Inverse folding.
């Protein structure tokens, strides 16, 4: 298995990769929120229950389930683009920025309290991403 090559005429760019990953994170959070809202409305989903089929049928009627799934599909497409044009050792750690977004959203919009220790850990992640982008 050889090293992936960028598309002809395209130069791998850490900034481009960062923008694509941040886009994927935003779309992912929106997609997960929509899927979760649909799940709450249908009473959840349990893989090993006898009602799994009914739960899936109910989900199939929920527009938020389909829109959330479409957003999650876009993440897959973005990831395929990145995995084929950038080094995995640079791209995959960029997705750790989702922890930052989740903590900020939790603190600002969901009434969650993020402890100081977590903010320090998140700062370490951000510093790690900055070092990664400069390498």
């Amino acid at each position: 298995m050889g090293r992936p090559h960028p598309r002809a005429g395209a130069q791998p760019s850490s900034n481009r990769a960062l923008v694509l990953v941040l886009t994927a994170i935003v779309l992912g959070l929106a997609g997960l929120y929509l899927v979760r809202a649909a799940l709450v409305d249908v009473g959840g989903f349990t893989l090993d229950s006898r009602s799994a089929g009914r739960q899936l049928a109910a989900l199939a009627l929920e527009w938020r389930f389909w829109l959330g799934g479409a957003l999650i599909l876009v993440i897959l497409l973005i990831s395929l683009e990145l995995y084929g044009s950038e080094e995995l050792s640079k791209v995959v750690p960029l997705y750790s920025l989702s922890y930052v977004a989740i903590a900020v959203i939790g603190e600002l919009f969901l009434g969650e309290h993020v402890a100081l220790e977590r903010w320090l850990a998140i700062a370490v992640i951000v510093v790690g991403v900055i070092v990664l982008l400069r390498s």
Observations:
- The radius of gyration is 18 Å.
- The helical segments are 14-42, 52-60, 63-85, 88-94, 97-109, 116-134.
- DSSP finds six helices and no strands in the chain.
- Confidence is low (pLDDT under 50) at residues 7-12.
